[in-house]
Write a structure and sequence with these properties.
Phosphorylase Kinase, domain 1; globular; 15 strands; alpha+beta; two-stranded antiparallel sheet; ATP binding; single chain; nine-stranded mixed sheet; Transferase(Phosphotransferase), domain 1
Length: about 350
């Protein structure tokens, strides 16, 4: 795989990690993604000499995921926090999607910050993430796999800008009539963060973040992306989610256990110890009907009110920014600044 040239311009380099749909590779200047289906390696733009991300899928596998993702990026092109795609096409035995290089994911930064974010950082993330989801919905697409790994920070002057990636499971919003034909389709997304809808069968693979309806295997809608975001925010604020660590022998059993845990916990219990706006947010997103358009401005106002009530300053200083500053100065965040 090393030294493959994509589109006579982008050189693929070594592996740097692994994601849900593939392994991540890095090299001098480029990135790419690999698994049984997808390859993701870093590489070099041989013309401009800068870094890019390269996602690859072998032609022997079903290419619809990466083709669909490329089509979605076309629709979303130009949006704030949407990676700029440089090239898509077939190169030898692979379909390749090349886009601009980004910084670490929120999951990476969460680990860097010892798996707990301050409320300030969570609220700063919420403000940008709601706007990203609003833009995707404005273009009539659902993301369907909202999770920490799919939010990345930018680089350089965009270092404080939140990006949304991985549209392999995204789909155009279907109307209520089409919804009737889609019930019972395969699960979509990450169950840890899934909405209740997704657990009920409305959706696509990390079950911890599924909305309640997603856990129930019915088709997802606008509210499900936002509910999943709510679980991501709770995960960051609490350090974990109550339905993580449940033991099951099959994926179906695990999905059912997670769904039941979400149903058993009241919103108040779920958001205990956090500003009341978190509970209001979760309750609101769960209340949305299939065709209800969310009030994104209202949701941003909720968290901005919490931000002001806590006395925080909009200085774009995240936990990882502060930690990195302290480390570069040679002392820990607990040490007094002299």
């Amino acid at each position: 795989m090393k030294d493959i040239l994509i589109g006579e311009r982008y050189r693929v380099d070594k592996k740097i990690g692994e994601g849900g749909f593939g392994l991540v590779y890095s090299g001098m200047r480029a990135w790419a993604f690999v698994s049984a289906q997808l390859l993701t390696r870093p590489g070099t733009d041989m013309k401009l000499g800068d870094e890019v991300a390269i996602k690859l899928m072998h032609v022997n596998n079903d290419p619809e995921i990466i083709k669909s993702e490329a089509d979605t990026y076309k629709v979303l092109a130009g949006g704030v926090g949407i990676p700029r795609v440089r090239w898509f096409g077939q190169e030898c035995d692979y379909y390749a999607l090349v886009h601009e290089i980004l910084g670490p994911s929120l999951e990476d930064l969460f680990n860097y910050c010892d798996r707990r974010f301050s409320i300030k950082t969570v609220l700063l993330i919420a403000d940008q993430a709601i706007s990203r989801i609003q833009y995707i919905h404005h273009k009539l697409f659902l993301h369907r796999d909202i999770k920490p790994d799919n939010f990345l920070m930018g680089t350089g002057t965009n270092g404080n800008l939140l990006y949304t990636i991985d549209f392999g499971l995204s789909q155009e919003f279907c109307n209520a009539k089409r919804f009737q034909t889609l019930q019972g389709r395969p699960f979509g997304g990450t169950r840890r963060y899934a909405s209740l809808n997704n657990h009920n069968g409305r959706g696509a693979f990390c079950i911890f973040f599924f909305s309640l309806l997603a856990n129930c295997a019915t088709e997802q809608s606008w509210g499900d992306d936002l509910e999943s975001l709510g679980y991501v925010l709770l995960y960051f604020a609490r350090g974990s989610l109550p339905w993580q660590g449940l033991k099951a022998t099959t994926e179906e059993e695990k999905n059912e256990l997670i769904k039941q845990k979400k149903l058993d916990l009241s919103v108040t219990e779920l958001c205990e110890g956090l500003p009341t706006e978190f509970a209001t947010y979760i309750a609101y997103t769960r209340s949305l009907g299939f065709e209800d358009r969310p009030d994104y401005a209202y949701l941003r106002r909720l968290f901005r009110h919490a931000f002001s009530a806590c006395g925080f300053e909009y200085d774009s200083i995240f936990d990882w920014t502060e930690k990195l500053f302290y480390e570069t100065q040679g002392y820990s965040a607990q040490d007094p600044v002299k």
